[in-house]
Design a protein that fits this description.
The protein is mainly beta and 74 residues long. The protein is built from 1 helix and 5 strands; from the N terminus they run αβββββ. The protein has one helix spanning 3-6, and strands spanning 31-34, 39-47, 50-55, 62-65, 69-70. A 5-stranded antiparallel beta sheet has the order 4-3-2-1-5, with no helix packed on it. The termini are far apart.
Length: 74
């Protein structure tokens, strides 16, 4: 078995610019768009300058830098 078979594939990273004015979610559970990954998620909180998001239908949380968060799809 190879390490490629064991390690999960990373989500694709889109080649886009961050929003000119990043969005700051007001509360946990708020629906936000991660511009870099191209995914919608529920905002879960902040830690060490990163925003933690969870897929809207449940699943594994991911993190992103604050500058990549928007409230509209880019």
């Amino acid at each position: 078995m190879t390490s490629a078979a064991i390690a999960p594939a990373a989500p694709p990273v889109r080649r886009v610019a961050p929003p000119s004015v990043p969005y700051r979610p007001a509360s946990s559970g708020e629906r936000v768009f991660d511009v870099r990954s191209g995914r919608w998620g529920a905002f879960m909180g902040w830690a060490h300058g990163l925003a933690f998001l969870r897929p809207l239908n449940g699943g594994i949380e991911w993190d992103t830098e604050a500058r990549w968060i928007s409230n509209i799809e880019q």
